[in-house]
Amino acid sequence: MDSNRYIELMKQVSRKILILNGSPQGTKGNCAAVIKLLNKKYQLQSNVLSLTEKPSFEKIKKHLIQADGFIFVTGTYWDSWGSPLQYFLETVTPLEGSSAFLGKPCSVLVLNHSVGGKGVLSRLQGVLSTLGCLIPPMSGWVYSLTTELLFKQKKNQPQADDFWSLQDLDIVIQNLQTSLSLSVDWKSWPVDRKNFKATWLKTQ
To answer: How far apart are CA 127 and CA 89, in angstroms?
Structure first.
């Protein structure tokens, strides 16, 4: 399915997507470039929340509740996601299993220079699933500087299909959009929303 078909599908579905930029670079850098590409190519009905601004819990909660699905974008920093995204995850802990997340599909896009991004992708998808998000098939994507250099070569690369490419975003977005049309009565397990910050270690 080409990008024009995606645009048509998105207009039919008419769901609101929240893009969360977890990069310390904020509105600059590679993550911002990917977000710009997403909005330009797929004409997403989206809001972008830059986490470098450290938005308040209430602001984050408002954005989450208004959204029907999410796209998380982050770079790779010492084998982990960006510090703004870590701040976000710690801030939204009280919303685990709530309507802010429960059953809402999400895609995860990770950038890295050479290696480490796949580990970040897998761990982040695990965290988001625990918060209550739905992880659609083929909804994670990792793109590296080394892969970018590979695809810029003029020579035919027979193993290129084993590397994530910019074109693979077509599949990521299509699967996210398909998941947005689902209607399921998801259930959440009990969650302690009050005492999760309590000090439980007694040293005296």
So the answer is: 9
Domain residue limits, the chain:
3-180
- CA dist list (Å): 119 to 90, 108, 130: 20, 12, 17
CA distance linking residue 75 with residue 78, whole number of Å? 10
Span 30-52, pLDDT tens digits: 999 999 999 999 988 789 999 99
**Length of the chain (residues):** 204
DSSP class of 77:
B
Instruction: Say which CATH topology domain 3-180 has.
Output: Rossmann fold (3.40.50)
- The region that residue 78 occupies, defined by phi over 0 for left and psi between -120 and 50 for alpha, beta otherwise, is left
CA distances from 157 to 2, 42, 112, 170 (A): 23, 27, 21, 21
- Residue 103 CA to residue 136 CA, distance in Å, equals 11
Which residue has tokens 């739905």? Answer: 134
d(CA 150, CA 129): 33
Of 72, 73, 100, 69, nearest in space to 177 by CA: 69
**What is the widest separation between alpha-carbon atoms in the chain?**
67
Q: Per residue in 154-200, pLDDT tens?
A: 566 667 778 899 999 999 999 999 999 999 999 999 998 888 889 98
| pTM of the entire predicted model | 0.90
127-137 pLDDT tens trace:
999 999 999 99
